[in-house]
Fold this sequence. Notes:
Blueprint lengths: L1 E2 L5 E10 L3 E12 L8 E14 L2 E12 L1
Antiparallel strand pairs: 1-2, 2-3, 3-4, 4-5
Amino acid sequence: ALGGSFGRRSSALQYGGNDGTLGWYGNVDYFREDGWRDFSASEALRAYGALTWRRNGDRADVSASLGDTR
């Protein structure tokens, strides 16, 4: 988490791991600031997730991302 001038705030959370067959990772972060000019506020929410499966030389991967900004 962080903060700064002009109402700037940001935070992030991430987690990942694997058990030898299945691997996973996820990340979510959020950003907001009031802006240094009138009517220049911004806000963003981003998320990403990935999942990998491996066994006997076979592999499957799935990932997804999401973004919402203003």
